[in-house]
Structures are given as structure tokens and as C-alpha cells.
């Protein structure tokens, strides 16, 4: 955390790296970002040794946090007084954050100081932060959710942050029930693990004393949303953001939080839904979600073509970022519902199948806890959907298919059901469908 703040203060660029990454992933980031200084810990030296000198060729100095006090005392870095630092403009690059890489190699998103401030100021207003707040933060600090939404916003509010190195249900429950924390941010996987832990104990899990519990970074199932509310008395606030944009949408802090939706645009953010030709759809219809605002990133690092592909302009010349997420907006209340990635859309016999809709139906079947639906080629239909399911008990395939037919159109029902022990996920809990067994 100290290295992060100091680097921003210097006007240099921070490149957070996932501690779970291994040789190939590390080499990709190092060769792309070409960092001069690396701050890490002794536990990472083994994997760095696999990267080799070529991969670390641009790194002029490697600092271990275990020896940071000695390093600073020795005066190794240039001793520059704060008054001598060059002025930092809002348009200066602050963070190079690599995307989750759910569909391929991760890309570096260029986030400026203004981008970070836009997200932070929007959240300060939307979630009513104050310097009296205490945030329990177990999310990793290499991701937007933990680093910007959690840590940076809390510091901007003058709030207190309790950092846990990792998520451990027993320790987290103890903190949540202590009465000493007001906020907790998590991903759906963490809330499911909290509920699993609570189910095996007789203790009460009343969290009504807390001010806010948020869920993001992956879709939250309606089942987890309702179960958490019934167990704790707290209604989770679901929101929507991306590495490239910080936070975009949020259910209201004071108002109705609708399960399965990600709410409305945050202050300073505009959102619209467009069709395949880039034209705004009729309210209530489905299409790709586009956003614009001060929170939207500067573009991809050393990828001008990818940057151009990711933006479009409307008839008035305003620039919109194409999120790649399919969504619809309720014409009655303006709440947005995400339907999955546009690259995951399945077109079967000319009909659109949105995987998330099918996944929610599958998870409503007794014994199925998680599901992932993907499209595979079909000579007859062009594409058909197959479903990977994680189940806690055995089930009859015909019963599951009959259940699906009662809730969704026949063309949306998966043509195959494949039980699997666990869905492949990245560090933030997003399902990596490209890693499912073929």
C-alpha cells in the first residue's frame, strides 16, 4: 500500500501484479510493461527465478518488502524532497492495470489520475462514505475492486481500512460480527463461502449493525442474494465495473436493491445499450452496453488498434467505450441487467441465447450450485448450448431438462449437461469459460 501511494505521489506508474501468476503470465506482463523497479516479497523469488534474466531485463532494481526498512535507511533511492517533485497532471498515467484475461492474454489498461478520481468521487457520493467508516478488505490489491473501489476510496474518505492478507471465513465472520467494521466488499464466491460456513454452525449471523456490504466483479445469483439477506438481515448491494472503467453502475445505497440487476449509472457516468450496428435500442430491448465518463480509461497500453476497436462515437461526436457486455435496461425504473459477454452470445437457429439467463435457471434446480453455459458448433443449428454444472447431489438428467423447459424456451435448453467438480475461475472469481474441458 505504501509503495502504491508513494509511486503515485512521484508521478510514476504503478503496475499491480497478481501473486498467483506464474512464469508465462509474469513474462507477458514484464515484456509488455517493461518496469524499471519491482517491489515484491521473498516468497515470489522462486517463480521469478523461472522467469530468468531475459524476462527481468528492464528491471533495474528489485526490492523485497521484508528488507524495505533497511533499503530506505540506506538511501538507495534518489533522495528527492516532495517540493522538488514535478507537478502531476490529471491526464498523467497513474496505473497500468492488466485485464483479467478471461478470454486470452491480459491487456494493460491505461488509467490516469483523473480516471481514478472520477471513480472515487462517484463512489464517495453514491455510497455515503465518511471518515467514521471502517472497511474490512480481504480482496487482493492487484485488482480494481480491492485497490480503487476499496482501498483508495476509503483513504479518500479518511476512513479506516482493516486489511486481511487473504479471505478466511472464520476470521471474516469474527470481524463482521464484532461491531467494529461498517463495510465489507466481496465477490459472489466469497459470499457463497460465508453462507456455507454459516450453514454448519448454530451461531447467529445478524449483520444489521453494518452499513454496507457490496458484491461485484462477477454476477451474483438471485439465490445467494436472497439467502444472504435471510441469514444476516443485510441486503447486498450489487454494482458493475471493469478494469478499463472503474465503477459504472450501482444499485442504490438508499433505495431498492433489485436481485440480478446492477442498478443505475453512478454520478458522472452515462450508459446506453446499442444493437449490432451501434444504434441505440428501444428501452427494454437487449444489446451491448456502452459507457462514457471521466472514469473511462485512456486506452490499452501499446495496443492502438485494440483501443480504436473498443470505442465508438455517436451522432453528436461523443465517445463511448464498448464494454463487450450484453445488457438490457428496465424502461420502468432504469435498472440495468447484465446478460453475459457479447463474445459468449450463442446464436442457435437464428435465435439469441444469453448464457446467464440459462445459468440462473440451472442454478435454481435442487442440488446444482453453479453452472456455465457455452456455445459449440452444430451443423444443424449453427451453434447449440452445452452446460457445465457443479452439483452437491446426484440428479436425473431428464428431470433437469424438463425443469429447464418449464422456465425457458426450448431452443435455450442446453443440448448437453456435463457435471464438473469446479468451474475454472480467475483470482477475482470470474468464470474462465475458455478453460472449460472441451
Layout of strands and helices, then pairs:
Layout lengths: L1 H9 L12 H11 L3 E4 L4 H11 L5 E4 L3 H6 L19 E6 L9 E5 H14 L7 E4 L6 H14 L2 E4 L5 H9 L5 E4 L1 H12 L12 E4 L6 H11 L4 E6 L3 E5 L13 E2 L3 E6 L11 E8 L10 H6 L1 E3 L5 E11 L6 E6 L4 E3 L2 E3 L1 H9 L4 E11 L3 E10 L5 H11 L8 E4 L19
Parallel strand pairs: 1-2, 5-6, 5-7, 7-8, 8-9, 20-21
Antiparallel strand pairs: 3-4, 9-10, 10-11, 12-13, 13-15, 14-15, 15-16, 17-18, 19-20
Helix pairs in contact: 2-3, 5-6, 7-8, 8-9
What does this structure look like?
The chain has 438 residues and is α/β, with parallel strands linked by helices. Among the domains are: 1-88, Rossmann fold, CATH 3.40.50; 345-435, 2-Layer Sandwich (GMP Synthetase, Chain A, domain 3), CATH 3.30.300.30. 28% of the residues lie in helices and 26% in strands. The protein is built from 12 helices and 21 strands. Strand 7, helix 8 and strand 8 (212-215) form a beta-alpha-beta unit. The two termini are 41 Å apart. The mean pLDDT is 89.
Quick overview of this protein structure:
This protein is of the alpha/beta class and 438 residues long. The protein contains 12 helices and 21 strands.
Q: What keyword list fits this structure?
A:
438 residues; Rossmann fold; 5-stranded antiparallel sheet; 7-stranded mixed sheet; single chain; globular; 12 helices; alpha/beta; GMP Synthetase, Chain A, domain 3
Amino acid at each position: 500500500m505504501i509503495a502504491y501511494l508513494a509511486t503515485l505521489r512521484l508521478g510514476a506508474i504503478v503496475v499491480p501484479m497478481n501473486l498467483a501468476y506464474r512464469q508465462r503470465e509474469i513474462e507477458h506482463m514484464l515484456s509488455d510493461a517493461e518496469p524499471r523497479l519491482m517491489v515484491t516479497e521473498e516468497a515470489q523469488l522462486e517463480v521469478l527465478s523461472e522467469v530468468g534474466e531475459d524476462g527481468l531485463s528492464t528491471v533495474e532494481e528489485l526490492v523485497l518488502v521484508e528488507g524495505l526498512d533497511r533499503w530506505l535507511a540506506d538511501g538507495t533511492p534518489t533522495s528527492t524532497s516532495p517540493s522538488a517533485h514535478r507537478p502531476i497532471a490529471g491526464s498523467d498515467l497513474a496505473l497500468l492495470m492488466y485485464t483479467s484475461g478471461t478470454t486470452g492474454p491480459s491487456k494493460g489498461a491505461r488509467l490516469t489520475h483523473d480516471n481514478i478520481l472520477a471513480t472515487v468521487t462517484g463512489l464517495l457520493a453514491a455510497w455515503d462514505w465518511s471518515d467514521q467508516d471502517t472497511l474490512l478488505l480481504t480482496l487482493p490489491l492487484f485488482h480494481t475492486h480491492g485497490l480503487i473501489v476499496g482501498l483508495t476510496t476509503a483513504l479518500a474518505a479518511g476512513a479506516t481500512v482493516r486489511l486481511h492478507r487473504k479471505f478466511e471465513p472464520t476470521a471474516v465472520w469474527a470481524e463482521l460480527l464484532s461491531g467494529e467494521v461498517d463495510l465489507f466488499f466481496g465477490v459472489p464466491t466469497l459470499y457463497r463461502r460465508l453462507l456455507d460456513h454459516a450453514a454448519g454452525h448454530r451461531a447467529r449471523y445478524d449483520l444489521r449493525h453494518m452499513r454496507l456490504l457490496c458484491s461485484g466483479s462477477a454476477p451474483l445469483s438471485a439465490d445467494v442474494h436472497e439467502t444472504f439477506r435471510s441469514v444476516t438481515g443485510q441486503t447486498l448491494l450489487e454494482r458493475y465495473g471493469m478494469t478499463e472503467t472503474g465503477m459504472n453502475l450501482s444499485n442504490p445505497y438508499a433505495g431498492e436493491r433489485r436481485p440480478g440487476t446492477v442498478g443505475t449509472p453512478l454520478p458522472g457516468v452515462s450508459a446506453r445499450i446499442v444493437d449490432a450496428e451501434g444504434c441505440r435500442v428501444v428501452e427494454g430491448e437487449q444489446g451491448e452496453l456502452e459507457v462514457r465518463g471521466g472514469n473511462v480509461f485512456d486506452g490499452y497500453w501499446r495496443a492502438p488498434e485494440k483501443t480504436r476497436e473498443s470505442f465508438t462515437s455517436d451522432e453528436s461526436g461523443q465517445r463511448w467505450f464498448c464494454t463487450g457486455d450484453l445488457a438490457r435496461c428496465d424502461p420502468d425504473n432504469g435498472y440495468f441487467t447484465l446478460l453475459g459477454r457479447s463474445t459468449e452470445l450463442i446464436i442457435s437457429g437464428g435465435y439469441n441465447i444469453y448464457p446467464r439467463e440459462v445459468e440462473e435457471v440451472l442454478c435454481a434446480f435442487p442440488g446444482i450450485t453453479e453452472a456455465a453455459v457455452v456455445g459449440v458448433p452444430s451443423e444443424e443449428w449453427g451453434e447449440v448450448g452445452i452446460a457445465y454444472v457443479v452439483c452437491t447431489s446426484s440428479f436425473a438428467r431428464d428431470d433437469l431438462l424438463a425443469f429447464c423447459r418449464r422456465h425457458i424456451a426450448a431452443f435455450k435448453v442446453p443440448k448437453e449437461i456435463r457435471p464438473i467438480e469446479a468451474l475454472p475461475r480467475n483470482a477475482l472469481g470470474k468464470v474462465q469459460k475458455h478453460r472449460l474441458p472441451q
